[in-house]
Amino acid sequence: METLESELTCPICLELFEDPLLLPCAHSLCFNCAHRILVSHCSTSKPLESISAFQCPTCRYVITLNQRGLEGLKRNVTLQNIIDRFQKASISSPNSPTESRRLQTQRPYTMDLRISCQFCEQDPPREAVKTCVTCEVSYCDRCLRATHPNKKPFTSHRLVEPVPDTHIRGLTCLEHENEKVNMYCLVDDQLICALCKLVGRHREHQVSSLTERFDKLKQTLENNLTNLVKRNSELENQMAKLIQICQQVEVNTAMHEAKLVEECDELVEIIRQRKQIIAVKIKESKVMKLRKLAQQIANCRQCLERSSALITQAEQSLKENDHARFLQSARNVAERVAMATASSQVLIPDVNLNEAFDNFALDFSREKKILEGLDYLTAPNPPAIREELCTASHDTITVHWTSDDEFSVTSYELQYTIYTGQTNFISLYNSADSWMIVPNIKQNHYTVHGLQSGTRYIFFVKAINQAGSRNSEPARLKTNSQPFKLDPKTAHKKLRLSNDCLTMEKDESSLKKSHTPERFSGTGSYGAAGNVFIDSGCHYWEVLLGASTWYAVGVAYKSAPKNEWSGKNSSSWVFSRCNNNFLVRHDGKEMLVEASLQLRRLESPYLTGMKTCH
After folding, report:
1. Are 183 and 174 contacting, i.e. CB atoms less than 8 angstroms apart?
2. Where in this chain does the record put each COS domain (predicted)?
3. How far is CA 23 from the centre of its chain?
4. Phi, psi (rounded to 5 degrees) for 85
5. pLDDT single digits (tens) 41-57
6. Looking only at Cα atoms, what is the longest distance across the chain?
7. In the predicted model, what is the mean pLDDT of residues 413-420?
8. Rg of the chain taking only CA atoms, in angstroms
9. What angle do CA 226, 231, 232 make, to 5 degrees?
10. Other beta carbons within 10 Å of 402
11. What are the CA-CA distances from residue 575 to residues 561, 593, 601 (Å)?
């Protein structure tokens, strides 16, 4: 139905043909559309009858008119009959595709809107049940039966579900007030009418039907809307994560605040307990020292009393003037005084100044500094890899880094992997399977061994403490290429190596080389191996062939036989030239390949193992 409808559509108004004219070029055109074309070509000073020709809008064929003008053209009766039958089928069957699209665009406006009959004379008018697209009027059931009997020409009118008057009448052209817009200019991106395309400034522009443009723009809008909805969903998810993080911040902050109070209370309790313990120790020391001093005072008092009594007795003896009596009484006193004088150091106790308790000190300066330095621990600042200080060999890289928060770092962790060109480092970092990790590094540098030669790696350094860790920015470092030369210890006796062991050529006179297990020894196979054995990685080299027409270049295991052609066994692979034939060979199997006879340079990328030349 949609294909048939497009065949019955006028190229000017893009509606079904109405009173179609049959043009001499076999195309058709609505009578009114043809009349509008003539009007557009007619100036104000010339009458319409003066127009004697116009172009077919489909094929640009010039249509010549006789004196009768448009009336002189034949009516396309057959086409009109087809249109009539098509319209009847459209009325009795579901809406045509075009009408369905029209109704889809109109339905959102009419779901909750009451459309009134525009033909009713009563007030208020009854609700409309149909809208005639041809009449551009909405009718109630009674008015519809009265105005649209089942007879011609009303049977050709298109009836649809009620729609507002503004939607059924459509938009008018900005340049031609009486014309409806019925096509879309793709150049100026605006709605135009048929006259704009025929005689206006859009004549040479590419245009599209409203339906086609509607479908395309709707699809574009739906796609963009889908993307926008998807982005909004992602933003909502992101916002939900941020809100969750905010909530987690609140929870963690409350937890840390409670922990702070708890830890400080414990410190205060420890200080209180230590204060009590030290106070008890001070009191105990005081009691012990005072008891000891009291005993010393009592001893001193006792000695003083004895000494005072002896002094009194001696003074009484000195008052005796009678010599005989003095000698009799003073001898005993003199002995006692002499004994007391001799033992005075024993009788008088030593006084120790330390017993005064002045050698006791309370020094909490160290503890005060520790308390003043109390703070919550955070993850250390990210370290910075110093690429200008990093060094590399063919299988090692020494990574250097610095940290402005070194005192809070407990250890470092080095992570590295082969750089594949991926720029999304977050995604690359999260793919943990491909990373090598070196933990518990105490210095600001580390040397990684066992790397592939000529390979770029990406490195991260993580600074760690009890509070967490932070990563450095990524650094891309590359190992040096593996130097390669031919090994003279493996070269056949009839081969001569020169140019610092980079050039090989046949030399029948060079036969003084001793035989070794590493040396090629075949009678028809003159070869030499490289001095580097490669067990992994991607590698590339070039061989300049000169004018040789018989050679083989390839790779082999170190254990490959040295007494036969490479490629004749399962341990070697070669590209070979035998006069004018080029082939690849492995395990005795050969396959011819196409190559130029002027081949002078052979490139061999991405092969692993031992390089050999014959």
Report:
1. no
2. 318-377
3. 65
4. -65, -35
5. 776 556 677 778 888 88
6. 200
7. 90
8. 57
9. 95
10. 14
11. 17, 9, 12
